[in-house]
Amino acid sequence: MQFVIVTGMSGAGKSITLKMLEDIGFFCVDNLPPVLINKFAQICFSPESGINKVALGIDIRGGHLFTELLTETQKLEKEGYELEVLFLDANDQTLVKRFKETRRKHPLVKEGRIQDGIDKEREMLSEAKQRANYIIDTSNLLTRELKVEIGKIFLEGHDYKNLIITILSFGFKYGMPVDADLVFDVRFIPNPYYIPELREKTGNDEDIKNYVMKWDVANKFIDKLDDMVNFLIPNYINEGKNQLVIAIGCTGGKHRSVTLANELYKRLAHHNYSVNCYHRDIEKDAKHK
């Protein structure tokens, strides 16, 4: 029996995660009061139930009842039941944006600022997050990417590291990414922009990749960056970090940064981490002409 409790921040994607789990064979129940978890588990674990995979969505909508979550899960574990907790998270900026886009009120703040509700919820969920077996930060995840992460955990049985790495190329002339944890400036590498036949191409094209990577300084940089990131990752995991955004910038975000972001992605993708690569400004030069 696989018994999963899905919880986390309001707006982080719990509802869509439950739908994804349902699609892969889980019997899903949303917003079950925590005080009923024990009885529900007894029914599901009984041989007559015919259920072998269960996911419960439990969130702050239950108000004061949510405080019973840890108590009830501890009871289940003492009684010999095995359960897992999946915690969905996102940064404050993303959560505020999602609430505004859907015109929803935060469940903890009927009147007032969304940010106040997010702050209260983070405090209330701090213990649940510490208890979680899996933490997925959805701040930079598309729906299809979240589906991949769910599949890795509950279909493929990966040794999930609770860290999603986003490699982001960008152009300094369009501003630095506000959510970056690590920022690297690669404007010291010769710029293909000044070669007419290369100017309109991007770092996704073979000609640009070959031009950028023919320089020793580019190869030394990516080797050193790869070595440093691989040193940092396990230390970040030990500190409980679950989202790492590595930003690589050049002037316009079209040539050098794209090439080196792709190179770093190739080096990290074979590790047992979740790695995504985005090119924020790759098309902006064409739009601004």
UniProtKB/TrEMBL annotation:
Binding residue positions for GTP: D59, I60, R61, G62
Residue span, RapZ C-terminal domain: 164-283
Keywords: ATP-binding, GTP-binding, Nucleotide-binding
GTP-binding in keyword set: yes
SUPFAM superfamilies named in the record: P-loop containing nucleoside triphosphate hydrolases
Chain segments annotated as coiled-coil in the UniProt record: none
UniProt domain RapZ-like N-terminal: residue ranges: 1-154
Top-level taxon: Bacteria
UniProt xrefs under InterPro entries: P-loop_NTPase, RapZ-like, RapZ-like_N, RapZ_C
GO MF terms, alphabetically ordered: ATP binding; GTP binding
Pfam families in alphabetical order: PapZ_C, RapZ-like_N
Protein residues bound to ATP: G8, M9, S10, G11, A12, G13, K14, S15
Magnesium as UniProt keyword: no
NCBIfam families named in the record: PRK05416.1
Annotated protein name in UniProt: RNase adapter RapZ
Organism whose genome encodes this protein: Vallitalea pronyensis
Upper taxonomic lineage: Bacteria, Bacillati, Bacillota, Clostridia, Lachnospirales
